[in-house]
């Protein structure tokens, strides 16, 4: 007759595992002898080895008792079902590993591939990392609210990056990321932004916006812009002096009602 330490050693498990199997009802707990110790017989060792073997094979403990009591056909069917579940779990874990690998750059977190490619293109074109970080966080907000529209948005943004005039303007906005409200370059920048919006608005006359962004999301994105750039409040004031309001959805003052 064996003590709990001895049966654990025979079966290649820990004493804690034996007690756990007792608690789960998988291994009967023997009565104590006159010395107060629980004594295990050979049948207990065999049962414990079977439990350990099934557990090591990935069988959930909740199904171990079922397999121990099954006949040959029931056992085969149960093993097939467990194997199918394990294969599905492996596929799911592989997908998790692939996603974790894509997160190495940080941009992939909560962003679709099209947006990550857009941010990478900004880096290639020499945009400041601070501006790219603001873009990334803004697109996380947009993707969370409008996931189906992101590919179309990204096609537009990529085209804008390849427009030399707009790219130069955007690069200059990035150069002022850390400047203060009194930076002497701000009025000239406001002039350029207003001129570009004026030209874009003229081209878009009669064209309805295909993917309108909600007012709540616009307000959230504008707030993020103001919080991210010390000069943003002053730049918005200068734009208002030139007849334009907002940032995410810049529009004429006379239509801002």
Report how far the terminal alpha carbons are from each other. 89 Å
Outline type: elongated
- Total E-strand runs: 2
Helical content band: 55-70%
Provide an overview of this structure.
The protein folds into two domains: 4-102, Multidrug-efflux Transporter Regulator, Chain: A, Domain 2 (Orthogonal Bundle); 106-255, no CATH class. It contains twelve helices and two strands. The chain has a two-stranded antiparallel ribbon. The chain is 65% helix and 2% strand. Helix 6 (113-124) packs antiparallel against helix 7 (129-145), helix 6 (113-124) packs parallel to helix 8 (150-162) and helix 10 packs across helix 12 (232-241). The radius of gyration is 33 Å and the shape is elongated. It is mainly α and 257 residues long. The model has no long low-confidence stretch (mean pLDDT 86). The longest helix is centred in the middle third of the chain and has 31 residues, at 72-102.
Put the structure in a nutshell:
The chain is mainly α and 257 residues long. The chain is built from twelve helices and two strands, in the order ααααααααααααββ. It has two domains: 4-102, Multidrug-efflux Transporter Regulator, Chain: A, Domain 2 (Orthogonal Bundle); 106-255, no CATH class.
